[in-house]
Amino acid sequence: MKNHRWLPWDRLMRASHLYTGMFLFPWMIVYAVSAFCINHSAWFLAKNQPAQRWEVVREADFAPDAELPSDADEQAKAVLEALDLNGAYRILGVPDAHQLTLLRLCAAGHYKVTFQRPRNHVVVERLRPVSAYALINNLHFVTGYGVSSWAYWVWAVVVDAVTISTVIWVISGVYLWARRPKKRLLGGVCMTAGIALFAVLVVLLCR
Hints:
This protein is an alpha+beta fold. Helices cover 52% and strands 16% of the residues.
């Protein structure tokens, strides 16, 4: 009777452990592989790989009207909208009266957009060539909230789900271990060793 009280929790923990992992499989692979690539970047950035360079892919005139805001972020959004390049971006350097330079983030190759104010001219460059290494690492750093695109928002929501699911996996894993008396000793040793190693490394890395 006593064990039967735990059956609903057993089912819930097993289901959450299993099905969240199955649904989030692509994202977990992306983050796992990209983290490995970043940690071993010297292996993947071999000398025989072509170096990425900025290539001009487009030039256009951009004559802002009197309603163009003075704020650099708002100007950046207006320029990207005119180029049909809405998405996540960063302002490079300090904008001045001569130019505004943006890095438009894109997993398939970032864009560098330079608005030359005196000439009302925009130059768009793209980082090429695109490699599998660059693609997987760019996906690792995709951010979504604050970008007016449903794809970025959905990606951001799924990333939040990945982080929450990781916590669920840890909790459910500890729960499932605690429910198996025969595995408690070995599991306890592993968990204690992991916590101890983590604590030692944090102390050493914070020096």
